[in-house]
Amino acid sequence: MAIGRKEDLEQARAQHLADEQDVMVTVLSDRQLLIPGFVDTHIHAPQYPNCGLGYDKPLLEWLQAYTYKLERKYRDLEYSRKVFNAVVRRTLNHGTTTACYFASLFQDASLILVDAVLKYGQRAFIGKINMTTLAPDDYVETPEETIKLTRKFIESVRSKDCELVEPIVTPRFALSLEMDSMIELGQLVKEYNVNVQTHISENTDEVKQVNSKYGLPYANVYDKAGLLTPKTVLAHGIYLTDEELSLLSQRGSSVSHCPDSNTCLKSGMCDVRRLFSFGIKVGLGTDVSGGASPSIVSAMRSALATSINLSFGQKNYKPLNYLDVFYLATLGGAEALSLEHKIGNFEVGKEFDALIVDMGVENGNTDLLLDCTPLELLQKFIYTGDDRNIAKVFVAGKSVK
């Protein structure tokens, strides 16, 4: 309703809260911060049980050896319910008020994730995976099934009539489908005006295979299919060429920076400064279970480390700082998901997705924080904090923790 300086508080309360009988007022201590909720722009809900496992192999081998074996289990709807409830609770505990989820190949399991998000009150995009090739024979769909079930999934999610949860078209990556299927998905995107999520240029072998299969640069493959829109978020983007980055900028598509996963799977280091130089929107992703933790705070630290490591090999390179990664975790993520009109900061008129962070609970050493400014408290939280410091989580003004 209003933002401003402390000395303006009483005037704002008089203006906006004429009758305070039904209003609960919370005054933060000097060791507490009110910050926007975190936005995870790329997370695989079915992979949560594999967090911390299987990092001995690169991406394409990792998918075959570990990931697809786990994801096939989601035919079991009770197993799906158990895992997806745990995923939503855990991400909320880490302060993720908005998540962009890859769900399951199986529609019924994907709808269970939708129900879990609704149950716990998180804001989310949820996508049923599209995959017709490059996976075990018992873990693919036919081209006809993938389009039919995606349409059905979109309509099922929309029928829930909840503004917090939206369907998102989710081709796994360019090697998982043929061009005809991707073109049909692009038509669904246009028909239903939905967001798109997929992977791009994560691994050098993957990039070579895409170029060989389609005879096109990776970004151009998606563009030909009509999948590059202002509401498209592409995970990783490590090896995009200047020409591809120019194309993404022209289309208004965004990149989800997943530094934990890029390290764990030995994929490479994404240069966020380079993405910014092309005017591309960037958010942070945990990429569970490519990343070992569903914590956006962990992703912020990894983004800092990646940027610092890049600076060692480039003259006059300015690494990201803690305010840069805080932006990526909040407003940057909102922009990447085309939600900046609703969330990401405390601009008047936006919805109240927020966290109260209490650095006074850190090991009981409150005496060490007596002289910290709010920015210093934020810096300490990013570098040393964890979910124990998150005292409250709000989504659209409702407390969910």
From TrEMBL:
The UniProt family comment states: Belongs to the metallo-dependent hydrolases superfamily. ATZ/TRZ family.
Pathway(s) served: Purine metabolism; guanine degradation; xanthine from guanine: step 1/1
Task performed by this protein: Catalyzes the hydrolytic deamination of guanine, producing xanthine and ammonia.
| Top-level taxon | Eukaryota
The chain positions of domain Amidohydrolase-related read 34-400
Q: What is its EC number?
A: 3.5.4.3
Q: Which reaction does it catalyse?
A: guanine + H2O + H(+) = xanthine + NH4(+)
Q: Pfam families annotated for this entry?
A: Amidohydro_1
Task: Cite the GO molecular-function annotations of the record.
Answer: guanine deaminase activity; zinc ion binding
Describe how the cofactor binds.
Binds 1 zinc ion per subunit.
Protein name as annotated: Guanine deaminase
Write the record's keywords in alphabetical order, separated by commas: Hydrolase, Metal-binding, Zinc
Task: Report the cofactors.
Answer: Zn(2+)
Organism lineage: Eukaryota, Metazoa, Ecdysozoa, Arthropoda, Hexapoda
Which cellular component terms (GO) are annotated to the entry?
cytosol
- Principal EC category: hydrolase
The GO annotation for biological process reads: guanine catabolic process
Q: Which PANTHER family match?
A: GUANINE DEAMINASE
